[in-house]
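Q: I'm writing a short explainer about Anther-specific proline rich protein for a general audience and would like to include a description of its predicted shape. Could you first generate the structure from this sequence?
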Amino acid sequence: MMKYNVVSPSCSKLFRCVLFLPLFFIFFVASARHLEQVPEPSPRPAPVPQPSPKPKPSPSPGPTPAPEPKPCPCPSPGPAPTPSLPRPRNTTFPAIFAFGDSIVDTGNNDYISTLVKANFPPYGMNFPHGLPTGRFCNGKIPADFIAEFLGVKPTLPPYLKPGLTQEDLITGVSFASGGSGFDPLTPIVVSAIPMSNQLTYFQEYIEKVKGFVGKEKAEHIISKSLAIVIAGSDDLANTYYGTHAEELLYDIDAYTSYMASSASSFAMQLYESGARKIGFIGVSPIGCIPIQRTARGGLKRKCFDEINVAAQLFNTKLSRSLHSVAETLKNATLVYIDIYSLFAHMIQNPKEYGFDEIDRGCCGTGMVELGPLCNQFTSLLCSNVSSYMFWDSYHPTERAYRILTKKFVETDMSPFYDK
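A: Of course. Here's the predicted structure. Afterward I'll give you a sentence or two in plain language.
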């Protein structure tokens, strides 16, 4: 029977991101000229009609929409950090696979035509050997930490990196692409790799592994490995509240239902490809990231409530939708993992985690720098990156990622272990 676990979502809140579009376009619109070099995304579903005053139905079948939560001050009080728990040792994972956006992109964007890149200093300054690798961070990111904490390998390479060895491939890779999302329109805007094409790469990868070890062993590796999916932040921050492209077609209730339905479809396709241990990580309180505070937080740069409310709405629907999918699958574990609660608690109680700065990034002013604007020629760095929760105006530091990932591995992994 299908096993299903929900790590309870925290109270959330969300805010709008209208002013984020001009900044985002500074970085990425030019990449649209090179879109033909990025794998063609799957056909986009037809949009629903112009929204009426009342919430519209979901554009595709999915869970019954939950009532939209009322806005509340951000960040919400989250639970105290969960104490470290002993990790069961009766299960090993042959490989780790990562799908989604920049949170788990370990460098795939280096090998496509997009301006959404991080392959230049000071990115990677705290990575082994101090070299930029395409990770949107000063060091390791969650995809690496998951592989490290589970004892698979120290870092997770990007699938598109040339020269990967047989051992590199067999023990797992990342298929993620910075700027991607569950909405097929999201990666088009920045020429990222669509989720559909990440799945195509995964199927290509499986054929390579079959060539290495044979069909039976390859299927065993895929079924016993852990597949992690994290996306949705760019759908909300960039596509819906940024460019407003989808806001003209969907109200937020319908759009988050659409996102959740797309995520569930992705889960089913992973299952059909042979994956049996699949975890979806929800969206964090993105209204509290530095660039959203700058664009939408007013003179005091407060968290942007509307987009945080939308994040919770999506997380709730994602959890319900995955539950529905789980009931249709056999011999698989499908898990929704809440990251909103701990992330909000870290923002609200920074000293508890050793952070002095939680509303700006280490790079430059920390308020707008991200991607090409965060570089060694134009941006000064903070004196102590470990005291900052954010590396640039969008992405957490290696230390913040370590805290978040450690919690997930220590407290949310039990459904994946063999009984």
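A: For your explainer, you could say: The chain has one domain: 3-32+55-70+94-416.
Q: Perfect, that's easy to follow.
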